[in-house]
Amino acid sequence: MSTDPFAPFTQQKFPHFGTDAIHAGQEPDPSTGAVITPISLSSTFAQKSPGIKYSQYEYARTANPTRDAFENCLAKLENGKFGAAFSSGLGCTSTLLHLLKQGDHVVVVDDVYGGTGRYFRTIATEFGVSFTFVDFNEENELEGAFTEQTKMVWLETPSNPTLKISDIAKTAEITHRHGAILVVDNTFMSPYFQRPLDLGADVVMHSVTKYIGGHSDTVMGALCCNDETLFKRIKYLQNSIGMIPSPFDSFLALRSLKTLHVRMPRHAENAQKIAEFLETHPKIEKTVYPGLKSHPQYELARKQMTGPGGMITFWLKGDIVQARQFLENVKLFTLAESLGGVESLVNHPAIMTHASVPAEHRKKLGISDSLVRLSVGIEDVDDLLEDLKFALDQVQL
Ligand SMILES: *Cc1c(COP(=O)(O)O)cnc(C)c1O
């Protein structure tokens, strides 16, 4: 690495992370000694006498052994007491909204994930919950957004796709002063690079589909928290609403956690080299990456994250014509939505992931036709650099 993006790195800060990633929440199976948690497919569990059970299990929507192992392992990695898994990231979001009731209000970071914004704007509002979208880095705007009815604050940092970083600890302080709870979507960093509960968040949310799953083969979500009363309510909602992941997805996610601490540093190491290459390239207008000193919140990133992650956003010179020339000529980077897998992906947010964001709002956030987002994988970085160099050479200004 030509620069040390963030020190201290996780190894010093979270000393047992790698051990917990492999062992937390898992014991050899008591009936067979199987070292790896089995995929438990039984939908129901026998009882000896009504109400007298063989284990804590009774019906698999309520609790499942494979899911339990994943939930407990992830909670440990987030330094949380409790975890709950869902069938997707949006399954977490919609379930969490059931903590609220008609008339309640939520303050949301303005460049929240497109699907989250769509759920809030077009569905949750129909049930009488209202939302105010603000830039959390404008402290007056944030303070001014609270009303008597504000019960929840929704933060995503770094944001998507502009990688804006907001202060979690400061937001937690403001949120709690107003008597609300803070939810932090930690999908882009994973617990390896950021632990929102340690910074005062009440709930951490993940699209497990991304870095935690890490292999682009599972759609799943998870929540972690420390407060027992809040967790009991989340478990009640998980069981009552029923947006649970399958045992097979739970198994894949548990398996993926075992390499999170090996994958994440490689994502960041590759991304740092690529970001430094892009930043000085003559056909690129601007590059945003938390590991670049030019990032507007570089100091904050160093403070609250333990590494800069694997996502890079840049603006090509020109417009949609140049963007298409670039996107049609990358070969190793696959043009696809999603992120966080071992393979590198490239995405055009204006047409792809953020098409559901109203055009005017997209403009305000800077999501123009020349904006390109990279999810840097863990391939050999020289091959990735060569791929980008070739595609940029094809761009005609
Ligand atoms: C993908 C994503 C989600 C939604 O998760 P799904 O698993 O696709 O439902 C939420 N937040 C962020 C930041 C995401 O990237």
Quick recap of the structure?
The chain contains 15 helices and 14 strands.
Index terms:
397 residues, Aspartate Aminotransferase, domain 2, Aspartate Aminotransferase, domain 1, seven-stranded mixed beta sheet, five-stranded mixed beta sheet, 15 helices, 36% helix
Walkthrough of the structure:
The chain has 397 residues and is of the alpha/beta class. The chain folds into two domains: 17-257, Type I PLP-dependent aspartate aminotransferase-like (Major domain) (Aspartate Aminotransferase, domain 2, 3-Layer(aba) Sandwich), CATH 3.40.640; 260-393, Aspartate Aminotransferase, domain 1 (Alpha-Beta Complex). The protein contains 15 helices and 14 strands. The strands form three sheets. Strands 3-9-8-7-6-4-5 form a seven-stranded mixed beta sheet, sandwiched between helices. The protein has a five-stranded mixed beta sheet with strand order 10-11-14-13-12. Strands 1-2 form a two-stranded antiparallel sheet. β1 and β2 form a beta hairpin. The longest helix is centred in the last third of the chain and has 20 residues, at 260-279. The radius of gyration is 21 Å and the shape is globular. The model has no long low-confidence stretch (mean pLDDT 95). The chain binds pyridoxal-5'-phosphate. Pyridoxal-5'-phosphate (PLP) is lined by residues 88-90, 113, 115-116, 156, 160, 185, 187-188, 207, 209-210, 219, 221.
